[in-house]
Amino acid sequence: MIANDDRVFLKEGMNTVTLSLDPPTLTIREGVECDGIYKLIDLYCDNKKCDCEIGVLIASRQKNEEIVIKVGWQSPSYYMNHGFSSRDVRFLHYGLLDPQVNQPAYAQWFMKYFRQLMGKDQSLTKYMRLRYHYTKIYESH
Ligand SMILES: [Zn+2]
């Protein structure tokens, strides 16, 4: 759903989970432990020989607390061929908590709301133009 307010691009439910751009911010107001305003930063690998097609989103509501999420936009078979397990592949389109990172205790809860914003068609990926940014960085080398 696209709201009229051009700073707020995605809303879910009773407007309790929202994504704003410029700067990218995810806000949760559900009356739960993971409520907060999360800054989102997207990172990409800069290895020109790598074709991982993965974006990493860092979500943080306060210093020294980071949720690290891997996001993919290619087909499941693409990631299977790049070494991801079938379980992880299922999550990549909606956000996969990076298993190699020590995540905050509430990260699993946060992901419930994060995945709402991803929706059926990877809305958050589209609005944040993750694939485009990946391609730009890839081409800049
Ligand atoms: Zn890569």
Describe the model.
The protein is globular, with a radius of gyration of 15 Å. The protein has helices at 76-80, 86-92, 107-118, 123-127, 130-139, and strands at 8-12, 17-20, 25-28, 36-44, 54-62, 65-72, 96-97. The longest helix has 12 residues, at 107-118. The termini are far apart. 28% of the residues lie in helices and 29% in strands. It has one domain (40-139). By secondary structure, it is α+β, with helices and mostly antiparallel strands. It contains five helices and seven strands, in the order E-E-E-E-E-E-H-H-E-H-H-H. The structure holds zinc ion (ZN). Zinc ion (ZN) is lined by residues 45, 47, 50, 52.
The tally of helices reads 5
In percent, how helical is the residue content?
A: 25-40%
Query: Are there runs of 5+ residues with pLDDT below 50, and where?
Result: none
Radius of gyration: 15 Å
**Small molecules bound:** zinc ion
Structural class: alpha+beta
Q: Tell me, rounded to a whole number, the average pLDDT.
A: 88
The quaternary structure here is single chain
